Amino acid sequence: MRAGPHERKRVAELRELVEYHNQRYYVLDDPEISDAEYDALFRELQTLEERYAALRSSDSPTQRVGGEPAAGFEQVRHEAPMLSLANAFSDDELADFDKRIRERLHAEHEIVYSAEPKLDGLAVSLRYENGLLVQAATRGDGTTGENITGNVRTIRNVPLRLQGKPPALLEVRGEVYMTRKGFAAINEKAREAGGKVFANPRNAAAGSVRQLDSRITARRPLAMYCYALGAVSDDGLFEEHAQVLSAFRDWGLPVSRETELVTGVQGCIGYYARVGAIRAALPYEIDGVVFKVNSLTEQASLGSVSRAPRWAIARKFPAEEAATQLLDVEFQVGRTGALTPVARLRPVTVGGVTVSNATLHNMDEIERKDVRIGDSVVVRRAGDVIPEVVRTLVEERPKGAHMPKMPDACPVCGSAVVREPEQAVHRCTGGLFCGAQRKEAIKHFASRRALDIEGLGDKLVEQLVEAGLVEHVDDIYALQLEQLQSLERMGEKSAQNLIDALQHSKDTTLGRFVYALGIREVGETTAQTLADHFGNIDSLMQADAETLLAVGDVGPVVAEHVQRFFAEPHNREVIEALRAAGLHWPEGPPRETQRPLTGSTYVLTGTLEALTRDQAKARLQALGARVAGSVSSKTTAVIAGSSAGSKLDKAEALGVTVMDEAELESLLQRYEA
Ligand code: IVH
Fold it and tell me: Is the pTM of this model over 0.90?
């Protein structure tokens, strides 16, 4: 077929694009597009070149692998070239590969393949002379790579001296990679230090291996797996690839435990499925599996084409990352009230499924990743893990892209949304009322240490909510016998028992009731402390921060949660409804009101003679008084020592009572037991 101007233009365009992205990936370790997008460009170019002979060219990126060696490393020539692999993206393409091989070999038999995981790292060649590691090199362009011996010597599982009797010259090919755990750890550290965060373990491994300072490499959690033979001094040592791998193991070289021999296409398909199933659980990332004709004689007669051997193929897994557009950000309310920003995406295939929603975790993450609505973002879906937005392509940001905003009101129930003190998470404060939280709230309310409603377990709560019989906690007290009996797995007897248990639970204690409300950070003990202190629910509901902080064991976080909970009108409504349903508890007069000076506020100013200011303050507080730092019309009295200044003036101006030290002393003595 003759190529038209359109095809010519597209091929030139694709070459430029592929070269550019090659450079970003291989040389700069900083890719801009996902592997899937790169593969698509590469394949489009390959297809055009295959179709139009006139468009083929030896300098096309399809004829060359990887990028130039970076300046700073010495160049080394590989004794035997480092080949790459052809890819198969479907079972059909795999079957074609097998068919081609059998045709070329005129084989009657099924082909036996060595099946191996395809590690996603960086190809490295090791050169051993008389069993000693003398050189390590990157692949580079396949013929010439970079000398990275110093760096590879720091990788713990690469032997510096081989065991047994290896050939005098031995080139070993393998993949240097970083475990997922190691990757997470170094990124965490980098994030803390405000440094550069790597996009994925492959880039982290590549960046680490190509460090000019090998001391830095030594601190990176790298490892290597060996999978092929390069040049070797002794001919005819092996007949099968499996023997090569087993010799590697004997010499002390690391080889993946997941390697197997399989037979024919069906064997390959089975292996692909097995490894696919454990992919997410493997400690390192793999992007596919590799099948290699096991017989070395057969390999030799098949030979190689420009960049890859005819006897091997990579069966790729669906890419775990893809780029798409962020259409909007919505907020999902979890069962504990946490609001999670969720990305609404232009649908895209990731990890083999169509993804149109992904988590953005929290507002801090959005800010850290600089994600804006309208951006192109990279979405990742690994295994069964919830898809997430991993980064944004800032360089492609369209005009008008804007930051998502956390709503002030809960999208489910309209209650106020607040940020947890010192945490990244935002929460709905309508714990008792909110539809998203109702199941958890009711389960907690009924639990043994709360209102202890026997028979109202987690399963039944879910049934009741799902059947629409219960919306808010107080609805449980309106349940009728017939309604309960209509539920699945609910007999007459248990329905009656539940009605009785509900009735019984109405007679409770304030401590249990406060605990049952499910206020964050208010456990059983704190609930009891609050109950003892305030004596009745109304005082607790009205308490301001200062009053709450005066309660032993109540710190600022608890005080804040308690205040926010009761500040939410929806929660107050439910509490009123519960009281109206007949919930009651013995009302002790609050301990606080029993103290003689409760409700009064004193201000100390000037120098006292007999007492220090702290002593005076402590004695006043012991009697229930509040001691404030500034004078207002609400101040009960100002106690003025000698050389009192502006506070005394203010008291006089406001008409606040002024006492001297003697009057204070007699006040204290009157009430102190
Ligand atoms: S064999 C003779 N086996 O994948 C063919 N390669 O996309 C040389 N890779 O350059 C490669 N795991 O960096 C082979 N078990 C494995 C592999 C593997 C990962 C990498 C290697 C190669 C690239 C090709």
Answer: no
